[in-house]
Amino acid sequence: MHKRILIVEDEASIRDMVAFALRKAGMDAAHAADARAAQMAISERVPDLILLDWMLPGTSGLELARRLRREELSREIPIIMLTARGEEMDRVNGLEAGVDDYVIKPFSTRELIARIKAVLRRSQGDDGSGVVELGGLRIDGPAHRVFAGEDAVPIGPTEYRLLFFFMTHPERVYSRAQLLDHVWGGSVYVEERTVDVHIRRLRKTLEPWKLDDMVQTVRGAGYRFSSST
Amino acid sequence: MHKRILIVEDEASIRDMVAFALRKAGMDAAHAADARAAQMAISERVPDLILLDWMLPGTSGLELARRLRREELSREIPIIMLTARGEEMDRVNGLEAGVDDYVIKPFSTRELIARIKAVLRRSQGDDGSGVVELGGLRIDGPAHRVFAGEDAVPIGPTEYRLLFFFMTHPERVYSRAQLLDHVWGGSVYVEERTVDVHIRRLRKTLEPWKLDDMVQTVRGAGYRFSSST
DNA sequence: GACGATTGTCATTGCCGTGTAACACAGCAT
DNA sequence: ATGCTGTGTTACACGGCAATGACAATCGTC
């Protein structure tokens, strides 16, 4: 559940600062001081994302990025480059090397975390287009539509919002009160049992495709949306 | 055949980063630091798409977007808004102003490129000839005519513009306000319900060919044009 | 300036979606 | 087993949004 981030940076002060910020944001931080240490750390345990300093002793960050892109093991790992201001030329090279994003020093940890999250989000199937796909279901935000395979699924407004919330927050239990907050909006007063009814309606709309068991009851706690039975 | 993108952004570092990413993706990048420079750049050479920062010195991005929608010259240019992580309010206002999409900062360059391509593709089903074909309907921009199969479809001016917008922006929901912005133009004040009436008239003109169900109602959201039922 | 075409607004109608209550059923405890 | 609590299911009535047709104003054309 926790994302593992590898920091490749020779300057200890920056490394510590970033590691602290990462842990505070609920991520696991590993670190390496140079290219060789980085490759060892990766082969030992593959991180979810790599923060790569541009200026490294020995093998440069750019060179390391290229190398990582060549290796089968590390090809899919997103990379965020840390570059000093005014190295614009370098950015071109970085983009060509397949780097996912840049953060310019000096940066605020808040911005860095936000960028990391953005990149992670994208690497998890949310390409930013507003389309989410999960377990045979596809929900298209801009089109306001749901597809089961190739078929368009007829669905009402509230069931749509409910399903949208579930698909963007899967594999997690939500109480009726939480669902009311997120799907109905905080300023509405509605009976909690109303949720049950809409859960029922959502299941009924998914039934023709045998996808109704994705909406799961967690007795005493609430409901969960899951792709696995 | 290279697409020309105009970046309107006051922060040089973001501008440069985006410009490099664009060029790498095979697009031409022009830039402007504020609203006035942007308008000059547009009048000099019309871009295929505009990247517009929400926060601009002087005239805000939102205001500029409204202004561009009012001008005949720039009405058809797709706009992607760059907004700081903020409220849903921003998104709503932006969409109401006739913006085609918005991207939240910080974004990865890859995500931005993906969005740009999506918008260009969408607002273009057009192969350059100005003729768009979709689901048995063909609309000829230069000739200002509509065909259902081999038959010419008699259609009024407003219904024509409405249909043209729909066919160049299919598979997506548009609120009444958005349709007013795109089809009527931002400087007219008209009741939202008027859209209903023209939707009705458009459906009636398509009825003889049983194509009226391509114009779909999305309760609580707006209307959508789609080839699939 | 007259005519038809086109457009925007309104009032009415119709229908879909929603919330609630009532009842049936299942899980869990003692 | 028995009772209790929590959930599934259905029915129903209300509210609200959208569809529709009629009308008046406006536009464009001859």
What do you see in this structure?
The structure is a homodimer of 229-residue chains. Chain A is an alpha/beta fold. The first copy, chain A, is built from 8 helices and 12 strands. The longest helix of chain A has 15 residues, at 109-123. The two termini of chain A are 19 Å apart. The mean pLDDT of chain A is 84. Chains A and B meet through helix 4, strand 5 and helix 5 of A and helix 1 and helix 5 of B. Chain B binds a DNA duplex (30 and 30 nucleotides) through helix 8.
Summarize this, please?
Two copies of one chain form a homodimer. Chain A is of the alpha/beta class. Chain A has eight helices and twelve strands.
Write the layout of secondary structure elements.
2 copies of one chain form a homodimer.
Chain A: E1 4-8, H1 12-24, E2 28-32, H2 35-44, E3 49-53, H3 61-70, E4 79-84, H4 88-96, E5 101-105, H5 109-123, E6 131-134, E7 137-140, E8 145-148, E9 151-152, H6 157-168, E10 173-174, H7 176-184, H8 193-206, E11 215-218, E12 222-225
Chain B binds a DNA duplex (30 and 30 nucleotides) through residues 156-158, 190-191, 193-194, 196-201, 217, 219-220.
Distance between the termini of chain A: 19 Å
Low-confidence stretches of chain A: none
Q: Main sheet of chain A, how many strands, which sense, barrel?
A: 5 strands, parallel
Quaternary structure of the protein = homodimer
Number of helices of chain A: 8
The chain-level mean pLDDT of chain A equals 84
Beta-strand proportion of chain A: 15-25%
Shape of chain A: elongated
**Order of SSEs of chain A, N→C?**
EHEHEHEHEHEEEEHEHHEE
Structural class of chain A: alpha/beta
Main-sheet strand order of chain A equals 2-1-3-4-5
The most extensive contact between chains is:
A-B, 27 and 29 residues
